[in-house]
Amino acid sequence: MSLDTTVSPLFPLNGNTSIATHTVYLALGSNLGDRRGNLAAALQQLRDYMAITAISSLYETEPVGYLDQPLFLNMVCSGKTRLSAQELLKHTQEIELAIGRQPSFRNGPRPIDIDIIFYDDLHIVQDNLIVPHARASERAFVLAPLAEIAPAMVDPVSGKTVKELLDAVTQDGVKKIA
What we know:
This protein is of the alpha+beta class. The chain has one domain: 7,8-Dihydro-6-hydroxymethylpterin-pyrophosphokinase HPPK (Alpha-Beta Plaits). It has four helices and eight strands; from the N terminus they run βαβββαβββααβ. The strands form two sheets. Strands 1, 2, 3, 4, 5 and 8 form a six-stranded antiparallel beta sheet that branches. A two-stranded antiparallel sheet has the order 6-7. The longest helix is centred in the middle third of the chain and has 14 residues.
């Protein structure tokens, strides 16, 4: 598997990939407050736990599930980390809280949401963590930015590439903006 190291002018890479042992892909979304600022703050804090190797463009997307809320900004980043999947989850949740995420209802509005989409090529099923993310393969707001940086990445559950998964879902309500 080769990593596309696309550089986003909005969110520069930190380039420190020598410490890594696990390849991870994270989806980030925000629809409350300063959406771009929230995403930038999350990326900056993630750098404490992973070397970011690629960052997608920003996509403005319609909410899914609960529709009566503002539009989201979504993106995906890839990186290298020495953390276990559980440790990474713990730190992403701490980052969400630091940026102001409050307990809410499923699919509700939030200043930041960080999901682990892929952790190496593993299929992880634990009480508080499912990787690949349980609904990522059916959500264009995850697949479109993911396909931008890793179109050939293979979903270990379906055996399909990210590009194949994206081609199989409607992309209505997903607009690349930066």
